[in-house]
Structure formats: C-alpha cells, structure tokens
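note to self: dont lose this again. the chain is below, predicted strucutre after it. 764 aa total, dont forget to put it in the shared folder this time
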Amino acid sequence: MIAPQGVAGDLPPPPSSMEAVADAQLFLELVVNQMDTGRVIAVDQRAGQLYVPASALQDVDMKLPGELSGSVALDTLPGLHSDYDSNAQRLLLDVPPAWLKEQFIGNRNAYPRTQAMSSFGALLNYDLYFSDTDEGGSYLAAWNEVRLFDNWGTLSNTGQYRQTLADGVSSSTFNNGYRRYDTTWRFSDDERLLTYEAGDVISGALPWSSSVRLGGVQFSRDFAVRPDLVTYPLPQFAGEAAVPSSVDLFINGYKSDSALLQPGPYTLTNVPFINGAGEAVVVTTDALGRQVSTTVPFYVTSTLLQKGLTDFSVAAGSLRREYTLKDFAYGPGVASGTFRYGYSDNLTLESHAEASSDLTLGGLGGNLRLGNFGVLNTAVSQSQFEGRGGQQLSLGYQYNSMRYCLSYQRVERRDEYADLTLVDTPYASLSKRSEQVTLSLNLERFGSLGVGYFDVQAADDSRTRLLNLSWSKPLWRNTSFYLSANREIGDSNWAMQAQLVIPFDLNGSLALSTERSKDGASRQRLNYSSAVPSEGGVGYNLGYAQGDGPAYRQADLTWRLQSVQLQAGVYGSSDAETRWADASGSLVWMGGDTFAANRINDAFVVVSTQGFAGIPVRYENQLVGETDRNGHLLVPWSSAYYRAKYEIDPLNLPLNVQSPNVEQRVSVRRGSGYLLEFPLRRVLAASVTLVDTQHQELPLGSLLVHEQSNQQAVVGWDGLVYLENLSAHNTLQVTLGDGRTCQARFDIDEQQQGVPLIGPLVCQ
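---
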C-alpha cells in the first residue's frame, strides 16, 4: 500500500534491547544463578546473539556440555538461559546446578596436626605396697617402671621387688626378690603412622585371633599417633543448590553445623564422630526464603576402615615363658601377622597368619556393613599343629542405635584347631565352641534394660551356659537404682543383687545394696565413699556388710599430694583382717633438674622460663602452678599426641625482662617428655629525664638518637624518654624543634634489676 502524498506512513516497531546495539564487543559483569562471580568478561554481540569465550565460562568452573572452545553462542547451549542487563551492565546466566563446581562443606580433621616432640630425659614410676594379714603374714612389694627417652624413641623396663616380712599360715617365699616384667624399646613415626618395637612385645591380633607375649621385634601401623585423622567411614550428604542458599545439618535432632552454599552440587562432610544408627536432616534455604528438608538415615561403625586405608602388624621372636615368675624365660621362635584393608566404605577385609616350628595358621575374614541395618563379621582360619589340622569359624553381628543395641558372636573350632597360645603350653586347650548374645534397651523414663546369654563348650565337652539380666533407672536428684540377676542354665536358682546409689555432693556418695547368692545366702552392704578432688586432697571409703556369714568391714584413706599419693586401709572380718598401705608417684629428670609427681602414666611436659622463678603456668587455660627457683614446672597430665596449649603469665616478670611468646601449643610422643622453653630476654633499659642548660625540660617531640644502638626515640611530657638496649656507657644526640642539637651522657649498671629513672640529665 502506498501512502498518499504528504501523509507519513506507519513507523517501524521500536528496537529491542539487543537490536538497539549494533554488532559490538561488550564488557559485562558475569552473574551465574544469581551469584556474582566478581569477574568482568568480554561479550561479543552479533546479529542479536551473544557470544562468550568458552574459556571465560570454564574459568568460573562451569562444566559445559561437550568439548567447546573459542566463542560460544549462548542461545545454542541447551539448558542455559541468558539475559543482558543493560542498566547494570551485567550478563545474567541461569544454568543447571550440575554444570557448576562441586562444593565440599566441612573438614574431617578434629584439629590441626602438630608434630609430636620429645626431649632427652628419664622417668621413674614407683608403687610401694605393704600388706599384713592375720593368717597370711606380711610382705612388701615395690613395683617400678624406668623410662629413658629422646628423639630416638622410648626405652622402658618394668619389674617388681617382693619381700616376705613375716610368714603366715599360707604364705610362701617363692616370689621373693626382683622379677623383671618387660623391657621394650619403642619408636613411633607420626609422619608415616608406623610404630617400631623391640624387646618384650605383645603381638597384634584381630577379634577372632589371639595375642601372645614374645621377645623379639614388631612393626605395625599406629593410627593413635595421629588423633587428627578419622580412620572409619563417616556418612556424607550430597545435593544441589540452584541459587545461593544456606544449609543446616541436624544429626539425631541436634543441630550439627551450618554453611553457606554457592549454586551447584554440594557434599556435606562435617558429620560429628558418632557410632551406630542415626538420622540426618538436611535443611536448605534459598535466597527467597524457600526451605527444602531432606531426611537421610545412616549407620556408622568404627570397626570399618575408610576406603583405601590399611592396618597391619607383624611380629617375630621367641615366646615368653612363665611371665612374672621368671626374668628371662623364652621358648621357641614364632611369627605372627595381621592385615586389614578398607576395600570400600562398606567392606573391610582382614587376614591373620601365625607360624612356629610346629604350627602354621592362616585365616581370612571381613566386616560388611548391611546398609543401615548393622555390621556382619565373619572369618575362617585353618591350622596345622604337630601334624594335626583344624578349622575355626567365626560369625557375628552388631547393631547400635539410640534405642537398643544388639550383639551376637559365635566361634566354633573343629578337629584339632590350635594357635600360638598352645605352643609350648602342654596343659592348655581351646574351647570347642563359644556363643554370646547381648541386648541393651533404652526404655527412656523407665530406665535401661540389659540381657546377656553366654554359652561355652570346653575342650572336654563340658558346657557352661549363663543368663544375665540387669535393669537400671535414674531416680530423683541424680540418685540411681540398679538391679541384676544371674542364673546358670540347668540350675533353678538365681543370684540377685539390688543397689541404690545416693550422691551427696560432687565427690561423696552413699551406696545401699542387698544380694542373694544362688545357694540362698543373703547379704546387705552399706558403703560411703568420698573421691579425691582432681586438684588433690583427701578421699576416703567406708564399707560394712552383714548377713549369712561373718560381718565384713572396710575403711581406707587416700591423700593425694602434688609429689606423691599415699593410701592406707583395712578390710576383712574380725577373724581375718588385712591391713595395707601404699605410696605411689613419679620422679622425672629433665633439663638438669629433678621433679616429683604423684603419678605420670603417659606423656608430660616440663615448662622452662630460663631461670625465672615464680612465673604462673596455665595448661588448657587452667592454672597448674608456678616455676620453681630454677625456672621449671612439671605438667604431668599431658596426653600423648594431643595438641595442648601452655601459657605463662608475664605479669610476675621483672620490668626489664621481655617475653616475645607467652603461649605455645605442643604435642608429645607416647611415653616421653618434652622440655618446653619460653624464651625470655633481659633488656637493659632506663627512663631518662632530659633538661637543657637552664634546667628546663626539653620540648615535647624532640628527636633523640642513642649512639651505641642507633635507637631513635621521641621526648615525651616533662622531658621523659624510655630507652632500651642500653650499654654501660651511653651517649644521646638530641635534635630540638628549632633545629638545634645537644648531647647528653650517662652510665648504667649492667647487672641492675628493674628499670631505673635517671636524671634530670643536662643536654648540652
């Protein structure tokens, strides 16, 4: 249609936002799924389409479909939606969450790892025990443990000296004298998670095998040196976030953790260290406040190894004979080895082997997690002992939850099955079969119920079957009631006991109980105990029992001091009474000093303040004491490989002593000690008052230079200036505000204590 002359035709439609711009290159801020990436990228506009370099999208960890390179037309990517915000100069992209980088939320490490340390030193643990019995005579026993340690490991020796003081009716002097127990060198490599042992060792074993004492060497995996590692598989929860969101994790109804999510897939690994069945709830909340809740059941067991982890132990040497009776009695040479491998997070494989001149044994087993329904364990082993073969079959099942726990284990041995416990022990034998079932129920406000059944068939075919029932319930104000009943199957009589425990305060409690044996004899007991405070002090225990038979009395007292623990008591009936006394403690030599403590079981630390006495020391924010006259303090409670915090309080230091570091975190090797030094530096300092020749204070802000140290300072109010790193003879160059200079000299005693005030000193 042609418009009439002089009349304009219809106008074309207005251009769109993209058509309004001719082919050009734009620099736009990239936003992906409502998340600002913080990047500005080059975008080409051609014929109304946007082209973006594939590398620009890959730089934000976007997984593009196919193998794309060069410039990519956004409209050609299926699943991607783009929008050009001309006002804010932004490129808005919406992509499937699976295209984005996967996020791992959480850290499986309990706390940062700290390399374990050890210093050269020695330790003596002792326990002196005296006993006097009316009919058994009296004797004195002195147990001791001696350790020598350094970076090369720990060498320890344990033993006991026993001496009969007065013979009784049934006493014997057979065990009199010193008896050596164990002498062992041990070194643990926490970098490789390995432990090396030589001397008297105990071989490693699995639940379906046995350990033996031997004199030789052992090489084993040791996860205990790395408490920051989690060796068993923990559950993890995965999902996708289309837009920026937050996630909350609830474990068994309790909030475990919260985190912010970027768009894309995510995996939650910050699960607390738990065991048994549980329920996790994952709640995600997007930017618009919309919530999605997902419930996931799970099952965790520490009997499994994470996928790819290995655990092993290899030992070789001579069997120990007549342990605690003879010092150096060793038998034939033997070897033993165990191996565990985490084939997957649901299956852990096991193997065990033993060998001697008369014995060969090999076995295979495994632990299988049945989803959320517990763990099944099974093993089979074959032995050949003195020409006779035998087999052992093991089968078990465990399930743990907050409501109930069930355990079943059966071991059956056929023919002439034997292991290292029978080598060189002609009178020993293994049971033919053993079976046990245990069940515990949490009845909530009705208490807890436990049931146990045990069935053992000995080598001579004799059979023992036991049934155990127990029930406990908390009552008012922390008072508890306990009830138990035991019966041997085939016997109609029950043995029963009921006990009521009433706490009076933090340390003291009263226990009332009554019991009946299967023979019908009854007995009532009354016991009051007061525990020793953790910081030291006195504790005691009083007991009385009466019923069928002579009355029983008991009384003992414990006095725990910083350097020793003392105990004494008496127990028995009026016809047969035993009196006893005990003293135990530790002596430590380290850093050229000797310390005493009531008992050191594991690792310890000696804090050194380099000769400064009376400095308060804190362990895990708790005051543990002050340094002695040599500047040392023994902290005996450190746990091996634990990253503990130690602090000193510098307020008691002289004014002229500086402490650049007042807090340190260290971990100590097992059975060792560490000399922890806090560097303290004595500084020769003084406060100097400067005046001019008219005895007027130098102007505020005058610049001062100490010639000997080249230290600069500024004069303060009243002409006062503080100086450090002084010498015996000192020269000060002062520049006044008007450009004039002056000089002052003074001497100071290098052995003086504190910070003296010198002056007024004339600057001329």
